[in-house]
Amino acid sequence: MDRFCLEVSGDFACFTRPEMKVERVSYDVMTPSAARSVFEAILWKPAIRWDVKCIEVLKPIRWISVRRNEVASKASVRNAQTAMGAGKGNLALYVEEDRQQRAGLFLRDVAYRIHAELVPVGDDARSNPAKYREMFQRRAEKGQCVNQPYLGCREFAARFRLVDQPAEEAPAIDETRDLGWMLFDMDFTAAGDPKPQFFRADMQHGVIDLTKAQVMG
């Protein structure tokens, strides 16, 4: 397997806890699914998948509370389909009539070093893995991406750089704590809606080793 390392950082982040129904409250650190999405933002193909192995926390965990205006509802799929069939329709949402305030507990000034393996799953990737490895290497070195990587929520854009020699980089924070149950990823293998998977996140000296994670779903 080809293993890659990225350093990602940003001014704010929100890796939302699913048990919080209305208010957005972040996990203490980046989730494996959020780390995977950063790699996929740089290179995603049906022939490959990304398997996140490790998350290193590079800056102290700091919080910020923000109250934001949000729209309470969303555009109706049925109305959109009707408008497409008729060639016209009223699809507007009026912010003044549908605004509500919600509080959020976000992370601020974050930085992580994330490690993942490029796993070939399609015939083309299995027969020619070097093509995909070089494709990702080239994109990451130039700062290119399919879509802008983000830190949990799309409004929190992530900066990223490829790390060639992780052992020569600055160490993770010297903090050890049990972070409790955390979302690992979504399981798309079964038919129907994807099912969430969780694991007990244990941070040792700033490092979460996902190779030891006991995933439950």
Detailed description of the structure:
The structure is a single chain. The protein has a single domain (2-69, 105-212), classed as Alpha-Beta Plaits, CATH 3.30.70. It is 20% helix and 41% strand. The protein is built from 5 helices and 11 strands. Strands 1, 2, 3, 4, 5, 8, 9, 10 and 11 form a 9-stranded mixed sheet that branches. Strands 6-7 form a two-stranded antiparallel ribbon. Strand 9 (177-187) and strand 10 (195-204) form a beta hairpin. It starts with a strand and ends in an 8-residue tail after the last strand.
DSSP strand (E) fraction? 35-45%
Record field, number of beta strands: 11
* Rg result: 20 Å
Number of helices: 5
Catalogue the unreliable spans: none
Provide the residue-averaged pLDDT. 90
Number of domains: 1
Q: Assign the CATH topology.
A: Alpha-Beta Plaits
Q: Overall 3D geometry?
A: globular
> SSE order in H/E notation?
EEHEEHHEHHEEEEEE
Relevant terms:
nine-stranded mixed β-sheet, globular
In brief, what are we looking at here?
Helix content is 20%, strand content 41%. By secondary structure, it is an alpha+beta fold.
Could you give the topology of this structure?
Layout (H helix, E strand, L loop, with lengths): L1 E12 L10 E2 L6 H11 L5 E10 L5 E9 L5 H10 L8 H4 E22 L2 H5 L1 H14 L7 E2 L1 E5 L1 E4 L14 E11 L7 E10 L2 E3 L8
